[in-house]
Amino acid sequence: MTSVADDLGSILDVIQQPAWAVDSDHRVSYANTPAAEFMGYERPSDLLGTDGRPVEHTYGWVRGHAIPEQAPSHHGTLTHADGSLLPVEWSLVPLIRPGGVAAVYIFRTGAGAPAVGREPKEAGPPRTVAGRLEADRHRRVAGSLQHGAQERLASALLGLNLAREHLDGERVPSSAAELLDGAIQDAQQALSHVRDVTAELYPGVLRLGGLPAALTALAAQWPVPVGVSGNLRERLPHAVEMHVYFLVREALGRAVHGARASRVHVVTELDLDLVVTVADDGTAPGEALDSAPLAAMADRVAVLEGALSVRHASGGGTTVCAVIPVERHSGY
């Protein structure tokens, strides 16, 4: 028979937003990695045993009291490890397990909650407005997948795992158990697919941690060493963050796959403008291989009203540099 941690770990570790399970005393019994990162802890285990209820919790359930069958979204705050308050929106998934009542909280952070009914201001050149609209659509669609489809799949998967647990030791046809096992596998794959699609649209680490954290995570995904440095520490307008993230990803793809670079370095420097540099030690840009990624990078920079330059030094690799006027995008 699987344990509570096994059941929850196979599900909560797949979803990108912070989530944890609580027992009937409201104490955290399992937490995923995004929850620990968001709350300022080094490890998910640091959250175990803490009170998992956000402030302004509307249910007030206690031992022996039933948890509501439906769990609409609610707004409130959590207390960070440093004592600061974190705004969150959350859904509550009740679980009825042998030996007691439990529930799973799935959180949407203040920075990551999709903006409902908010459109970017219609200001600036048409191409720039289109870029802002594109970034806003990416964020809304990713938020809808993450806080709609992903949460429902996670809830269904939890229910399927609990049903499978109840079948252990019972006299049921082997075909029924096999069908349930197959449904669990299908739901796991669907949940993983939703996670991957969401990451392609608007990576969770970009939404939660901003551009520096997202570029650090992106650097780890390549088969060659990719260094990340710079003075950028603050959040930028979401349109700037999204387009710059994909600009860097396209530059890395060009360097690694097109120029066969063995090493790349990404630098982000913020002063009056944001200057993003991607330098590699690969071969010179080639017209056939580089036309598509260079055009894509040029489009990213153009919608941000910036300037793009590409320089190649003989024997020294290629440097892609984008200069973005961040102040023009304030409020988006």
Automatic annotation (TrEMBL):
Residues 4-43 form the PAS domain. The keyword Kinase applies. Keywords: Kinase, Transferase, Two-component regulatory system. Its EC number is 2.7.13.3. It catalyses: ATP + protein L-histidine = ADP + protein N-phospho-L-histidine. Gene3D superfamilies: Histidine kinase-like ATPase, C-terminal domain, PAS domain. It is an enzyme of class 2 (transferase). One of its GO terms (molecular function) is kinase activity. This is histidine kinase. It comes from Streptomyces canarius.
